[in-house]
Amino acid sequence: MELKKTEKLEHSMVELTIAVSAQEFDAAKDKAFKKSGKNITVPGFRKGKAPRKMIEKLYGEGVFFEDAFNIVYPDAMDMAVKEAGIEPVGRADVDLGDAEEEGGLTIVAKVPVEPEVELGEYKGVEAEKETVKVPAADVKAELTRMAERGGRTETVDRKAKKNDTVEIDFEGFVDGTPFDGGKAENYELTLGSGSFIPGFEDQLIGVKAGEEKDVVVSFPEEYHASDLAGKEAVFKCKVHKVQETILPEIDDEFAKDVSETSETLDDLKKEIAERLKNERQQAADRDFEEKVLDAVLENMKADIPEAMYENQINTIIQDFGYRLQMQGMQLDRYLAMNNMDMTTFRSMFRDQAERQVKVRLALKKVAELENLTVSDTDLDEQYAKMAEQYGMEAEKVRAAVNADALTADMKIDRALEFLTTNAKVKKKAAAKKKADDAAEGEE
User: Domain containing 22: what range?
Assistant: First the structure.
């Protein structure tokens, strides 16, 4: 076998022209004959006993061609890829091959490869970064949520108030006719939760157990059921029970009950403030990373082959399928339930896949330009961290996770760290910051 020609094509494709000698291809035909010739019947011979030449004379010279091609192709491609010094990123588009007069074969394969990446300015790019704050009001709100989670309910003999839970039967009518999904019995509804159509819960404030009330509301114009959107509805409701939520006293004893480390309410407030700060800082850091990457990608040039996008979509869908299986559902069942075919489902992940591919290519290029390396010690430490994380022996993790792949991922992580460390933090424009602060205050 010999690599005759290597030619770069558009869209990061490389065309390889491979010559297979007559002797090599004849040997492949002989293997094909030994494998499948036993199933071929030739008049005058017992089944599987006819010689190869007799079978070729009867059924044509090409009778073993395809099987022989499949035998010779893997070795031919391995040789050609190594000789050309390329790393395929997807399946090759292969001509079945042209038989030569001397009995040899010429294979032409178009192989997708990683594109040449050209980065613009990537060091010191500017991006906005949120300044993390934890106002006392946020700590107080979190304390209230914690108290609500530990609250208990009591049935009360009085008119319902906001934040009470009422147990009701209801049935909805539009133009005097009941509609699908508009009826329920013994439904527990917390007044003020906003879980029902706007105005519904407000009209139940003031009712008592045993009372009946007609609640008149209008469905929103953008309501998901188009036949109800914008229409007025009457819900006939009967109240069975009114329940009040009794919250625990927020004091030192409460702090001890809800925290393993806090002895006082002040301790708990500090714990909550620190947790909220860490959560918001992590979110701000992730947002900053994305904005830095946006700035780098904006100036990146790369002729990315379609195969890389398709491979990434495959990976996303595979991960999606694994998560479904953990919930006891198969992907095909999920698609059927959502009245969706695979083509439509794949299209949902196209933008995500494109960004992931571009980000990895950009970070790989940064690692190359900055000569970011991973030492054997670094690799050993990473294996040890993974072993601790998954509760496995380090050697088992090492056997399961390819060292080259892990090294590549670690370089990607270091490239991202390099970009964010060297990026310039840009303050929010005053008008935008004022609007954001106002929106935060409304929440």
Answer: 2-112
